[in-house]
Amino acid sequence: MAFENIDSYINIPTNDSNIYKDECAFSMAAPDDESGVYICLKIFIAVSPSLAKTYSNVSGNKIFLHYKILKVLKPKDTDVVETAAHPTKLAIGVPGGFELPHDRYTVEEHWSLVRLPEGDKLEVPCPSLDSGTPSLSHLKDLALSDKVKSCISKVQCTESAIMVSERAGAAAAWESENPCPISKYAEDLLQLDNGVKIPPKGHKCAKCDLTTNLWLNLSDGHIACGRRFWDGTGGNNHAIDHYNETKYPLAVKLGTITAKTAEVYSYAEDEMVTDPYLAQHLAHFGISIRLMEKTDKTMTELEIAANERLGEWLTLQESDKTLQPLCGPGLTGIVNLGNTCYINSVIQVLFAIPQFRWCYANAWQKITEEAMQNAGQLPVDNFSLQFAKLGNALCSGAYSWPPPPPTPSNESEPKLVPKNPGIRPRLFKHFLGKNNAEFASKRQQDVQEFLSFLFTMIESDATNRHSANFALDSHAPKRTASTPLEALRFVIEDRLQCGTTGKVRYTERQEYLLSLAIPLSAATNVAEVEAFEKRQKAAKKANLPFKETPVYLKISFDDCLNNWASTETISGFKSPATEPPFQETVAYRSSRLVNFPDFLCVQMLKFSVDANWMPCKLNVAIQLDSGSKHQGSEENADDNFRPSDNWLLDLSALKARGGLQPGEETMPDASQDTAAPAKVSADEAIVSQLMEMGFSRNACVRACMVTANAGVEAAMDWVMEHMDDPDFNDSPPTYMESSHSVSGATVTADLSAVATLMEMGLSQQQATRALIYCDNDLSRAVNLAFSEPHKWDIPSPNAEENFATNVPQVNASASTVPTSASSSANLSNGDCRYELIGMISHMGNSTSSGHYVCHIKRSALSKGVPGIAAACEPSPSEGPNEWVIFNDEKVARSECPPFQHAYLYLFRRVDAPRE
Questions:
Q1: Is 208 marked within a binding site?
Q2: Active-site position among 24, 151, 341, 359
Q3: Which of 165, 723, 801, 894 sits at 20 to 30 Å (Cα–Cα) from 124?
Q4: Helix 751-759 crosses helix 764-773 at what angle (to 10 degrees)?
Q5: 7-158, which class in CATH?
Q6: Model confidence pLDDT, tens digit, residues 3-38
Q7: Under CATH, which number does the domain 684-805 receive?
Q8: 851 belongs to the catalytic site
Q9: 117: cis peptide before it, omega within 30°?
Q10: Do residues 900 and 641 make contact, with C-beta atoms less than 8 angstroms apart?
C-alpha cells in the first residue's frame, strides 16, 4: 500500500499550529486555481503543484493533502424580482452594505492524500459541515493509521492561519457603525437650567441659515450646524465652534433621534459615543424620545452620499469614463483584501522601477530555491520570498488575462465561477501584519507611512542577505546594488549660516522621499475658487442642488520646489559662532541635492490642520508643467493639467554646492562648547512596579522614558498600547528621551500639551518629541507634527546636536532609513532632468479613510520575466505616452490621468536604467 508506514513523514497539528492552506508559500497559487495546492503534512504550508516535487526533494517532506476549491454559482430564483439595493452603510457583506461575491456562489472542497515524488493519490472525503470540530468519522473507511487520520481531519477542519489573522484585524474593517463607547461625560453631564425648550420641528442653526446637519448641545440646548465635509458639503463648523467657546462636551444630531437610536458626538472625546441617559437629557429640553422620528441622514449616510458626488473620487478613478481593460506582463491587478488599496498602489509603483524587478521579481526562482533549502525558517516568514513572489506575479503576466464576461442575469442552472485575473497577496499582508500591528488591521493607512515601513523592511532584508550571496536576476546590469533602494537614495546638503558672524555649517542627510510643502500663497486662481465657494454657499442657503465640479487652488509644482529650496530665516538661534558663544541671533537655512538618483519619489504634503487644529486635507490642484499650452475641453477640464508629452522636470537649480565654499568660515560645532543634552533616566521605582506585573525590564524602561517618568499609570498605559510592538522588549534606543537641553537649560515636554496632541491622533512618542523640539510651543508642534508625523518616530543621527542648537537641521522623517554606511560612494547620479512615470492619488478627507489608486506610464512597466510564461498576449499599446490606471484588481488604459491630484509622484531620471 502506498500510504502504509507514513507516520514518520507527518505531524499532527496542535491547537497552536498555524496551517497555511489558502496560498502557496512560494508562489501565488491558491486552492481555487485549476490545479489547487498541496498542503505539506509536516509543516502545514501550501505548495503549488508545479513546485511540489522540487519542494519534496529538497525538504524530504513526502506526504501532502491536495486541496481544490470549486465555486459554483447559485441558480437564480426566477420567482424573485431582483432590485439593485443602494448601500446604506460603509460596510461589506453586512445587511445594508456592499454585496460580497460569495453571496452569489457556493464552495465545494475536494481533498486527496498524495505521496511524492511517486504521485500516489487517495481520495479523501470532506468533513461534515455540522461537526464544528475535527472528527475522524468521515475517514473511517480509509485504510490509514489513526495518526494520519487525525492529521488529515485537523488540517481540513482547522481555520487557516491567514483567516485567523484576518478575523483578528477585522474589528475595524469597513463597518463604521460599531457600537460606540459610553461617554465618560454622560452620567454627570452638566445641564443648564436656562429655560430652553426645543420645538418638534422648524430647527435652524443659531449662527447661520442651515436647517439640516444640526446638532443639539445637551448642556445648554444650543443648536448649531455640523462640520464641513471634504467635498465642501456638510455644515459650517458652528457646533464645534460652540464647543470651543463653552467646552460643553456632548451633542446629539437632530433628525437622527428615534426611540431606539440617535447619533451622539463627544467633542471632548473626539468620537461618536453612546449616552445611556439620552432620554433624560432630551427631556430636560422638552423632547420626548418616544415621539421622535428620523428626518435627517446619519453621518454614514452623508459620507456615502458625499463619496458618490462629482469630485476627486470620480476624477481619480476615472469612473465617469468607459475604460478599456488591459492585460499582460506588468498589467496585473491586486485584489483589495479590505482597505489594502494603500498596499496595492505602493507595490504597483515600486515594481515599475527596474531595480526592484532585478532584485526580486526576476530573481524569484533563485530566491525560492534558497528558501526551500532554509530549513530553519518557514517560507511564510521569509520577506525576500514573499516580496519576490508578489513581484514575479505582477511582472510576469502569469495572473493577467482578459476579465471573464459577466454571468447572465437569467442564469438558472449551476455553473462554475470563472477565475478572475489578478492576485490576492494574503501571505504578504500576513507577513506585514506580524511586523506591524497597524498593517495587520483592515484600517486604511497612509501610503507614505507604509512606503517608509516597507523601505525599512527592504533595507533590513538586503543587510541580512548580503552575506548570503544576494540573489539577483542574471540579466541585471553588473552595477546593480544589493538593494533596490539605491535607485531612490539621495543626499540632501543643509546649509546653516549664523546671522551675526556669517559663519556656516554644512550637514548631509540621506533620504528616499522628497517631501514638499504646498505654498497656498502661490495659488494662481484665488478669485476663481472664492467665486465657486460663494456660489456653493448661495445654493446651500437656498436649499438648491449644487452639482458644479469642484474648483481647487491651482499651484505650480515649480512653486513647491522653490518653496522647499528657499532660504528659511530662523529667529531665536543661539549661535555657537558668536563671542561669547550662544548669543541669540538669527540663522539662515537652505537645502540642496547632492545627487540626482535614478528615481525620485516626491510626496506632496497635502495634509495639514485647520483653524480648529483638526487634521484636514488641502484642496489643491498641482500644475506640473506650468509652461504647458495644452487646453482641455469643457467636458474634460482635467486635461488642462496634463503636462506636454516632452515635459521634463529640471532640478539643475537644486544642485548642492559641495560643502564649504571659498571665503566661507566654518561654524563651530555646538557639541564642542556645551555639555551634552541632559538625558532622562528611567525612575527605578516605577520600573520595579511594572516589572512586578510581569513585563521585561527593557519594556519598563522604555515606558518610563517615553512618558518622562510621569507615574505608574502613565507608563502602564504606554505598555498596554505598545506591548505588541516588535521592539517592545528590545533595549531602549538612545533617542528615547523626554527632555533636551538648550544652552544648558533642560526642556521637558508639557504633559497636558502631550495629551492635547494625542487627542488629535498623534502617538505619545510623536507628541513628546515634537513638543520638546518646539520648546513646548503647541502651535508650532501641531504644524510640524502633522506636516511630517514620522519625523518624530526615528532618531536623527545628530539628534543631540540638533537639540543643542534648537534648529531642526536633520529631517529624520520616516523616509530616512538607517544605512550601514554614511558615505556617498554608492549614490546613483546623472542628468538633472526627470520624466514622470508614476503617481499615487488619494481620495477622501484623511489618510486614515478614503481610497488610493495609482497611475503608471506603460513604458515603465515590466515587459515580462525571463523563464515565466504570461497567461496571454499583452494588450496593444497606444504609444510611448500611454498611461495605465491600477484601481486594485482593475487595470485599464487611462484616458485622463489625474496629474493634479497626486499624493506621491515617481520621476525617472532621463539617463536612468529602463529595463
A1: yes
A2: 341
A3: 165
A4: 130
A5: alpha beta
A6: 888 999 999 999 889 999 999 999 999 999 999 999
A7: 1.10.8.10
A8: yes
A9: yes
A10: yes
